[in-house]
User: What shape does this take?
Amino acid sequence: MTDVENLEKIILDIFGVRKNIKNKNNTNDCISPLNKQSLNLFSCNFLDRLSRLNRKFSSNPGEINEICEKVKNLGEAKNSQWAGPYSELVALDFFAQFNFEIDYINILDINAHKKSIPYRMGQKEVIDIDICLGAKNTKLYTDVKSFNCIHTNIFDEIFASVEAFAFDKLGKSVLLGVDNLSSIDYIDVKNNLGAKKKTIERNLKAAVEKNLRIFVFDSDGLVFKFRIEYSDTISTVKEFSPFAQAEAYKYKFLDYGNKLVDDEYSLITMVRNPWFNEETVDFGNFNNLFYRSLSRRTFMELLRNRGKAKNFSHGYFSTNISVREISQNLAGIIFIDDYSFSAKNVDDLYGAYIYLNPNYKNKPPLTIRSLEKYFRTDREVQIKDFDDFKWDNY
Assistant: This one.
């Protein structure tokens, strides 16, 4: 049974729904562990998650079908592209533990939100948002994103090509790695790395032909130090600072302006799993410091930036929307660390960090006081930090 056929069987066994995935031979780091004979923590936690979702949404066939589609998407994904649908399943399972009414997949008429950022961006017909959390007289709309390393997919493709070239053309077995990605500016990487992909690949192949062990690429503000090992092991240098990483990523949330509504609270939920994000190290208090610092920069530093958003994110190219306006339209950020690969019980499955924007402008800003009661269940131990910056808004 292939990994894809096994995934189709999982969907049928848990949800009673048949889903057909065309490429039966596809595989990736998410679905491969599910098809192992020996039990592993990731597989157990993944299957338990799907069972919980089936129980939670069993009375709504439409939502069950949407969940099954996301599981199907895992089997269709190449490389680390499984991160997107996987993150939605993680977020849905996390929120389902608490005292919210949950609607999964919310399609809003764009014409009912003419003051929203998406409308001003020229978005047509609808605003598509993953989850709506219902609280008393309040709706919290949150779209889910995978907090993946922006460099990962590109470097994975480059390294695979160079390693295949070395083996097929030169008869060499090589491994490649790259030092210090965490503090490289997000905007520089997003705008320039893709365009440099072929150049980097070509230079690395030349370096392998010369048996070089170090190659430094320096172009248009991008500087990467590559290491080449002619053996079965490689080590790279990683120097992590949560504050430097927050500085590098401070414009990241501008990319999600098309998910912000104008008459209810809009939040972004970021899911991190070390299999698709090696930048956060989860050592000591690193993640807490990074997430909190990044949120403060988004809510406070960007609030003071009256420059055009189009200078930092291509989605605004035909608008005059400012960076400040996007910051003011984001009600909060929720970070979820997924420990499916290591957790032995459900209490340890997630670690969540919730940050609310004290400068949100469309309604009175959300506060810890207004939301904490909805998180009062046995799973509240998963919430590691919760801050509305009431005393830290400067």
Remarks:
- The first helix runs from residue 3 to 15.
